[in-house]
# Entry
Amino acid sequence: MEKLLLFNPSKCTGCKTCEMACSLSQTGVCNPASSRRRTISFDEDILDVPMQCMQCGNAACMNICPTQAIYVDPETNAKIKNPDKCIGCRMCMIACPFGAISVDPLTNKIVKCDLCLGDPACAKFCPTGAIEYVPADAYSLTRQREAIKEISKMMSTIAKGGA
# Structure
């Protein structure tokens, strides 16, 4: 059964536990700079949004890669980078509409989310439940609309100069 990561910005406190869990899971070191995901804070931390690879169906990063270093994992449907094929051209970084591909400052290599091979540490350790790994059929249009309304309300508050 296909699963997806869901993000609820209204539950995110900006604690960055997801970044620490990701870096520990991926590299064995608690270093947010090595995380495959980021928590972006807007307007002096009024709004925190967890951001990472959305595992797009028609993934621009995979389509643009000149060496086909990004492939689809048949078990998780994650778009995974093969380090042996990657030439470090960073075209995938440029093509990603979410800015979800980055360079690990410790290794100077491209990194992206691989869903922790089906057990995403970010969702597992998120203390507020802002990140969930759920079956794809639970990902409904209603839920998307609720999240968009919440973000719109927060952005409206920010635009008006209030908290």
